[in-house]
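Running this now, will post back.
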Amino acid sequence: MPGNPVKVAASILDCDFLHLADQLAAVVKAGTDIIHLDVMDGHFVPNLSFGVPLAKAVRSAVTVPVHSHLMVTEPEWLIEKFLPWSDLVVFHVEATELAEQCLETIHAAGKAAGISLNPNTPVESLRTLVADVQEVLVMSVHPGFGGQEFSPEAPDRIRETARLIRDTGSHAVIAVDGGINPTNCRLVAEAGTDIAIAGSAIFRSRDYAATIKALKCP
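Update: finished.
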């Protein structure tokens, strides 16, 4: 809501991996609330990113929460590998026929669970799951690559997600990912976003602190 700052999650997909520790320290010092890991398998999305060793390295380098976003086919095979290094694990509703099993695995480890949906997936597809998740991640681009343009339909989908959360009695927060920058962040904040995920907007900026402050939409 206007006047209530959103949290900012820095997606490291666009960071300088030759200086990963320094980049992580810099964005945390600049006010990042969460480090966001975009895990891609080259199947569910047309890109490869990184795996467990990098998640382990990130977890050892920061004290803020680490969220792992599994953009992978059949995430039930990978969730357990990322759980030790993540505070929250997000998987895609489109990627598995075993969503309930995925949630049980995450919760059994004492971690928070999130579920994500692509821009062309009906929000209603989450109705039977949303009461059991701690986060719904609304994609405002088609996942796979950083630096894409923000979808103008995203605010309406965020509002629809917020209604579904209220209707089902869920306590899930709403995150949004894809093309988020200081220009459009207020649109998603006013629609009901709790966490703004940004990668290129942060790591390609000259002033991390100023960018992160703007993304929080105080």
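The mean pLDDT is 93. More later if anyone needs it.
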